[in-house]
Amino acid sequence: MKIQISLLFAILFVHTKSQECDPALIQEIRNYRPVAELIIEEILHGASKGLCYEKLAEFVDSYQLRITGSQVLEDSIDYLLEQYQGERSVMDNTWKESVPNLPHWTRGEEEAFLIEPVHKSMSILAFGGSIATPLGEPLVAEAVVVTSFDELRSLDASQVSGKIVVYNQGYVSYSQSVNYRYKGASEAAKLGAIAALIESIGPFSINSPHTGVMTYAEGDTKIPAIAITQEDAEMLRRIYLTGERIVISVKSNSQTHQPITSHNLIADYNGTRYPDKVVVVSGHIDNWDVGQGAMDDAGGMMIGLIAVEVINSLGLRPKRTIRNILWTAEEQGLLGAEHYFNTQKNELDKFVFVMESDSGTFDPQGLTYTGDRRNGECIIKEILSLLGAINATRYQWTSGSVSTDITHFTDAGVPGAGLWDTDGQYFYFHHTEGDMMTVEDPNALDRAVALWAVASYIIADLTDDFPKPSPRTTN
Amino acid sequence: MKIQISLLFAILFVHTKSQECDPALIQEIRNYRPVAELIIEEILHGASKGLCYEKLAEFVDSYQLRITGSQVLEDSIDYLLEQYQGERSVMDNTWKESVPNLPHWTRGEEEAFLIEPVHKSMSILAFGGSIATPLGEPLVAEAVVVTSFDELRSLDASQVSGKIVVYNQGYVSYSQSVNYRYKGASEAAKLGAIAALIESIGPFSINSPHTGVMTYAEGDTKIPAIAITQEDAEMLRRIYLTGERIVISVKSNSQTHQPITSHNLIADYNGTRYPDKVVVVSGHIDNWDVGQGAMDDAGGMMIGLIAVEVINSLGLRPKRTIRNILWTAEEQGLLGAEHYFNTQKNELDKFVFVMESDSGTFDPQGLTYTGDRRNGECIIKEILSLLGAINATRYQWTSGSVSTDITHFTDAGVPGAGLWDTDGQYFYFHHTEGDMMTVEDPNALDRAVALWAVASYIIADLTDDFPKPSPRTTN
């Protein structure tokens, strides 16, 4: 019979790898169609419609600047702890876990002006972790404007020493361009620069500076590292190319204080049969000290909370525990997540699957998955096939990270998924004052909740644990 | 024969009105095809390629904040006067004309904070013409947040008196929504409000406030009128609807000084046969005290300058004079244009046609025309048919204004055209710090120059004057 299979069929089989899927497992997931439809119906047309937007707005309007080290962040964690532990909570067990020794950096007054050859104020944001200008006072110096590390390194130290280095590196992609934020100051300091003004990492700007974390490497000379806008970086480069002398005044009195303790917030919706087996559904609660962090990442966090509420409201309870985790100190380098992983790394068997949304909830497309590529991949694809009603059926695999905070787990072999969003405008707003509720859409949030609820419920409810990759089956 | 004309043909005739076009006139314009192609070739592929972008960047980088009353504006006018009168200028006669008695308003320090129920800094821009907060110091008061004038008027004076009125009116279109900028303060003052914070007039925001002119009507109680961002307006409205008390601190020490004199800059490229007959090709030179006014309206102004340079570089000279006019004080209410019109209104016969670009030069589509709808419309459509190579063949007619500064002329019966741009993002940047060279594209500018050069050259060179509308033929 096989010889008679048409080429078309053969291609389809190769494409879906369905020949490798366990037919019983596939059928088991198909049996969840009525449950998936019930969940979607409840969110799109039932009492849960719009609930995520409403709760998200209430949260971010009340706790806007949730930067690590701030009272607002701790208050926001306590607020959600109270909600989770309150009468109307659907969670069985909620607790905070201390995350000690976190960096505590605060922004001070900051301003910058181009003062030669013409006068113009420039919108700036110091990068998290940056030192202040000397005594927190204006630093006035000539500027050199480069478009790359290579161009900087081609200069002689005498051309850079005592000056401000301005980077106008442009935007390729976040992952490529962000190196200028991380390393721009240190690379400039090597040539004797006294401050680095770095073009914001983003593809589109309305005079919008983007903050974000930076660090100094061991032994580096520390100089201030400050975001300027795309517009100003380009303007300074144009003037620089005319040969005119550029003088800039920049002031930033940010401070690094003693390390502090923050908290991850953990809430379990207990499984019926294997309560010690856990499916993690997560997002991070901290943001920067600009905007509201509506998109990064209160939205990603909130869809996980609402997903469990919806599952509960329908009288559903899976065999395994769904664990909401709200990570702290993500923006300082995934520090809450790293701490939690370290406390759990000897018990990874209980972590069946890890999920996070940290790339926006604008228009959910499906899932990015990492893990076993035989039955694991089959399960994810089959779950996605149940999500046609919300147009979230797209699948992509990666051998790398699917989402920031769960990277430690997936690197250690726990399969995981990130919400695959159309992030067309995500980096317009990322780490800017513009990351506010205005960027959120109630319908998109509802669809993200539906995707999250269906996926987490099914994975937590399967007869067998979600397969973990073994050396033999992992690509 | 007419009875045998099909309905389809009849519709086509009505649509194009081609039965009314003078065949000799149409043929005359068709004979310009080689000239149009030469102009386009020179700009798209010749020595003039990229010239407009280069000159525009040089201009706006050197003179960024050209607000009426500023030395920068007067310096920028003198700089262009010098260019026009210099050795390499192609213009025959260039002069400044004084425009007296113009408002001189300056922005001072300004800042705003939400201080109850949570703390957040808000990006603001006082509107041009607004008074300061008392003594230029922070004004701290409770706020009322409305979404429309109707909602405001539905409130009792006791609910508004002594408070700050915040408008979260949303964006419908510039022309509709801008009334909140014009009248928001006065309407709020009628109920005893002490300041008005008005959502910026724009469809998209990254925490970007938009300034713009406002005025107080005779007899109005004057209160400060200040732009806030879309994000903050929406945030304040959400909090207001929860019933929580909102307290805002707002400081603005803008000042209105004694009236000043500025200048329109006028430069003639003399016609060969009818030098006293004029085709005006214009844009405004002033902008606000934010951004660079690259798009509003240095770009619109610069395409006119470069268009004449290109015409000259090809050895072309039309029968009538092409007059570049760079209007001053447009942002204060078309005041430079109004003054010029008043000096010329008894000699309107010499103005054959008026053109302006003041809606951006992003992606020129064609022309918006007002004037005679028989042979005048035929001419414009026929000229546009020569512009297929730059995709600028679209035509629209209006009985209203085709562009800001030439409105007085077109209202008085002089036919005119505005550059029809795809202004999809024009109001993203309009009157914000983001109106900088970054929004400009060299190729789009080149195409705008080509459109401008072909249209102005042909209209200035026709055998007969461009037809003026008469009561009989005007729709």
From TrEMBL, chains A, B:
Record's subcellular location: Endoplasmic reticulum; Golgi apparatus; Lysosome; Secreted
Keywords per UniProt: Carboxypeptidase, Endoplasmic reticulum, Glycoprotein, Golgi apparatus, Hydrolase, Lysosome, Metal-binding, Metalloprotease, Protease, Secreted, Signal, Zinc, Zymogen
Alphabetical list of InterPro entries matching this protein: CPQ, PA_domain, Peptidase_M28
GO annotations of cellular component type: endoplasmic reticulum; extracellular space; Golgi apparatus; lysosome
GO biological process per UniProt: peptide catabolic process; proteolysis
Domain PA: 154-236
Molecular function via GO: carboxypeptidase activity; metal ion binding; metallodipeptidase activity
Domain Peptidase M28: 264-453
Pfam entry (one): Peptidase_M28
Stretch forming the signal peptide: 1-18
Protein family (similarity comment): Belongs to the peptidase M28 family.
Assembly description: Homodimer. The monomeric form is inactive while the homodimer is active.
Protein name: Carboxypeptidase Q
